Amino acid sequence: MMRFVILRLLRHNELGMFHSYRRLNKEGSKQRAINFDGDVVDRVFPAARDDDAIELDLKYETDHGVELKSHRIKRQEKNWRLEGNCPQDSLYDFVDPGCLFAMVVDAGTKPATGAWAVYPADHEVTLAITSHAESSQLTAQSMIALYGSEGGYTLDLLCASKPELFGAPVSVLATPAAAGRTADSGPVHLPPNPRRLVRILASVGHSLPSAVADIVDNSISADATEIDIVFREPDQGHGRWMAITDNGRGMDRQQLAEAMRIGSITEYEERDLGKYGYGLKGASWSQAESFTVVTRQQGEAPHHLSWDAETMDNWEASRADLESWIARVISLGDHGTCVFWRDMRPPRHTSASRGVEPYTAEIRDLSRHLGLVFHRFLNGHARGRKAVTIRINGNAVAPNDPVGHSLATAYDRKPIRVPTATEDAYVDVQAFLLPSEQEVKELHEVDAEAARRDLDRLGMFGRRNESQGLYLYRNDRLIQWGGWHEMWTTNDEKTKLARVVVDFGSALDDQFSVNISKQKVVLPQQVQEHIKRLADDARKASRRKYLDDSPVKNGRPKTPKGNGKPAGPQPANPGNANPGGTMSPTVVVAGGNQPRPEPVMPVRKVRNADFSWKISRSMTGQEEIQVSESETDLQALFDSVSANEEALARLAGFLRRLDKAGVQGLLSKGNTA
Predict the structure, then answer these.
(1) Which tens digit of pLDDT belongs to each residue from 579-617?
(2) What is the distance between the alpha carbons of residues 468 and 434, in angstroms, rounded to a whole number?
(3) What number of other Cβ atoms are within 10 A of residue 585's Cβ?
(4) Dist CA 571 CA 410 (whole Å)
(5) Does the pLDDT of residue 311 top 70, yes or no?
(6) Strands (E), 27-131
(7) Through-space distance between the first and last CA atoms of the chain, rounded to whole angstroms
(8) CA–CA distance, 459 with 58 (Å, rounded to integer)
(9) What's residue 271's pLDDT?
(10) Count of CB atoms within 10 A of residue 458's CB?
C-alpha cells in the first residue's frame, strides 16, 4: 500500500467546485476543480506523465451519506487539477477560503483509491492539524503530501473524525504490550519499541541511491559478479518495492540469522566493503517498512527471513511463506542472495526534469550513483576482485571514472604513512587535472552529442564546480567526493578542473572516523597537510587553464593557441588520447591551417533589475554575457557587433574592467537618485 495524506488550504478560485459556493454568489472564477501542486503529484504518482489523466475512485460525503465516485487529476498548463466531481450537497454550504481539504489515497493501484473531506477553517480538526509540526510545510507550500509516519498524527485525527471515510484510527507509533517482570525486585526487561527503533535507524541519512549502494557492498563482499536490481512502477498493484539479487556465495541459516540481527557480529576481511554489521538493516529500513532476505548456498535449498516494523514486537524475524507474487519476483540461481524491500517510502523531494517523470528520474539518478561509486568494480580495476555487472531493470549500469577521461592529466601518485594502534597504514594520493570544456569539444569536433555526454559525466551532470576536490576511496569503493575538506573553504570557479584521488583501506576506519553509513570521512590534520601540498599543483594548473580558455585576458582578445601541447604532467590515459600525446588536437578550419578561434560568448537578454550586465559561466563552464532588457542602448551595441568576434571580445573585456571599477554600482545609484 502507498497511502498518503494530502492537505490543502483551499483558495477562493477553487471553491467553485462546490455548488453551494455558487448558489451563495461567492464564486469569482469559473474553475470547477481543486488545484494539485506538481510536487505533490510527482511524489504521490511518480510514474504519471504530463499528458496522463490520473484516475481515482474516491469516497466523499453527501447529504445522503457516503458515496463512491470516479475522479481524475489532469494537467492544466502550469499545474494539475482534481476534476470529475462538483458536489451539489448543502452540507458544503460552509466552504470558504481557508477551509481544509484532506485526502487519504492509496496510490499503489490503478485506479488509485481513497477518500476526501473538507473541514471549516475553525473546525477542531483543522485547528489541531495546522497546530502540529506535520503541517509545517503548508507555510511555504499550498499543498503537501505526507507518507506513513510523516503524517501519523494527522491520519489519526482524520480517521477519528470521519471513520466512515478514512477508517478506524491506528497510530503508527502504537506502543507494544508491556513485557518483562513487573515485581518490585529483580531485573526489569525493557526491550526497545521496535517501531521507534526502526525510525531511528531509518534516519541515518540514506537516499535511495546510497541505500542501494550499501546493499551492493554486501553483494560484492560475497564475491558476486552479477547484481540485478528490479524497481517497477509503483502503481502496478503492489505499491513501491525493489529487489536486489546477486550471484554471490549465499548464506546458511545461521549466517542469515546473524545478518538480520541489528548490530550483528560479523568478521570482515581486509578488502570487505561492510562495516559495523549495520548496512543491511540500516539501508533497508531507511527505504522500507518491511524487508526480506532470501539466500541460497551452492547445493542447498533457499531459505529466508523477514522483518516488518508492524509485527516485530517480540523481536522475532518471520519465516512465513512468501506471497506468490514476491516468490515470482525473487529468482535465485544455484547460489546468491536477494534483498527485497516492500512498502518503500517515497522520496520527500523528486529530481524530475521537464519531460521526465519522477520514477524515470529515480532510475536515472540511481544508475548514475552506482556507476560513479562502483566504477572500479564495473571496469574490473578493483584490486582482488573480478569485474562486476550491475543491471537496473535489465539495463547495465555504465561506469563513470571521475578522473578517467582520455584527456585528463595525472600527477605522480604519493603514499602517506599513517600510524595506527597496531601498525602503520598507508594512504595513496594522486592529483588530476581535467580537460576544459573547449578541449572536450575539440576532441569531438564532428560529434556534438558525444561532447555533451563527455561534459555531463565529467561535470557530474551539472555539478562540475561542486565536484572539484577530493575523491575518497575505501577498498576501491568511492564513499565521498567533492570539496576540499578544511584545506580550502570555497570551491573556486577557477580550480574546478582539479581533482585528487585518495585511497585507503578499512584499517584506517577509526583514524578517519568513517561513519556508520560509510558516507562521511574526516581526514586527520597531518593527512590533509600532505594532500594540500600535492593538490596545490593541480589547482594552480586549473587556474592557468581557466585563464587560457577565457576569450579575453586583461581586457584583450586572447591569442589563439598553437598545437595545444601541455607543459608538465602528461595525460592520464595516453593510449586513448592523441598519438602525439597532446592535451587536445589542433582543429584545422576550411581554407587554411590556422587553429580554430575561441568560441564567441553568447549574449542573452534577461529580465533583471539587479544588474545592467553580467559575465558568468554556466554549469558546464561556458561563458555568457547577460544584458538586462532595461539597458536598450547596451543591447543595441551588442547586436551591432555580434557578427564581429574581435569586437565582441573587446567589448566583453571592457565590461570586465568597468566591473572591477565598480561602475555598475554608480549607475544603479544614478538611476535611483
Answers:
(1) 333 333 323 333 333 333 444 567 777 665 567 888 765
(2) 10
(3) 18
(4) 6
(5) yes
(6) 34-36, 53-62, 65-76, 79-83, 100-106, 112-119
(7) 63
(8) 46
(9) 52
(10) 26
What residue type is assigned to position 318 of the chain?
S
pLDDT for res 16: 85
Task: Scan for cell 465516485, then name that residue.
Answer: 69
Closest C-alpha to 442, from 544, 573, 588:
588
Q: Measured between alpha carbons, how far is 217 from 275 in angstroms, rounded to an integer? A: 10
Residue 440 has pLDDT above 60, yes or no: yes
The pLDDT > 70 percentage for the chain reads: 83
Question: Strands 242-246 and 395-396, how do they pair?
Answer: unpaired
The C-alpha cell that represents 354 in the structure block: 521537464
Rg (C-alpha) for the chain, rounded Å, is 30
User: Do the beta carbons of residue 2 and residue 113 sit within 8 Å?
Assistant: no
Q: State the Cα–Cα distance between residues 423 and 425, nearest whole angstrom.
A: 6
User: Which DSSP string corresponds to 582-629?
Assistant: -SSPPPBPTTS-PBPPPPPPPEEEE--SS-SEEEEE-TTS-EEEEEET
How many Å apart are CA 510 and CA 522, to the nearest integer? 10
Residues 6 or more apart whose CB falls under 8 angstroms from that of 390 comprise 216, 227, 228, 229, 370, 374, 378, 396, 397
Collect all residues with Cβ–Cβ distance below 8 Å to 467 and sequence separation of at least 6: 402, 459, 460, 481, 482, 496, 499
The single-letter code of the amino acid at 602 is P
> Is 330 a residue whose pLDDT tops 70?
yes
Cβ–Cβ < 8 Å for 291, 306: yes
The answer to whether 249 and 413 are in contact (CB under 8 A) is no
Say how far apart CA 411 and CA 500 lie, in whole Å: 9
Residue 318: DSSP 8-state: B
Cα–Cα dist 194/283, whole Å? 16
For residues 487 and 470, give the distance between their C-alpha atoms in angstroms, rounded to a whole number: 10
Q: What are phi and psi of 21, to 5 degrees?
A: -65, -35
* Closest among 34, 16, 96, 101 to 61, alpha carbons compared: 101
Q: Which amino acid is at 641?
A: V
Angle among Cα 76, 62, 64 to the nearest 5 degrees reads 155
One-letter-per-residue 3-state SS of 108-164: CCCCEEEEEEEECCCCHHHHHHHCCHHHHHHHCCCEEEEEHHHHHHHHHHHHHHCHH
More confident residue, 100 or 515: 100
Cross-strand pairs, 409: 433, 571
Cα-based distances in Å from 485 to 420, 503, 538, 660: 22, 16, 16, 30
CA distances to 153, 217, 400 from 280, in Å:
29, 9, 25
Whether residue 75 contacts residue 173, with contact meaning beta carbons closer than 8 Å, is answered with: no
411 burial level (CB within 10 Å; 0-12, 13-18, 19+): buried
CA-CA distance, 289 to 395, in Å (whole number)?
Answer: 27
Alpha helix (H) ranges present in 330-379? 358-373, 375-379
- DSSP string covering 639-659: HHHTT-HHHHHHHHHHHHHHH
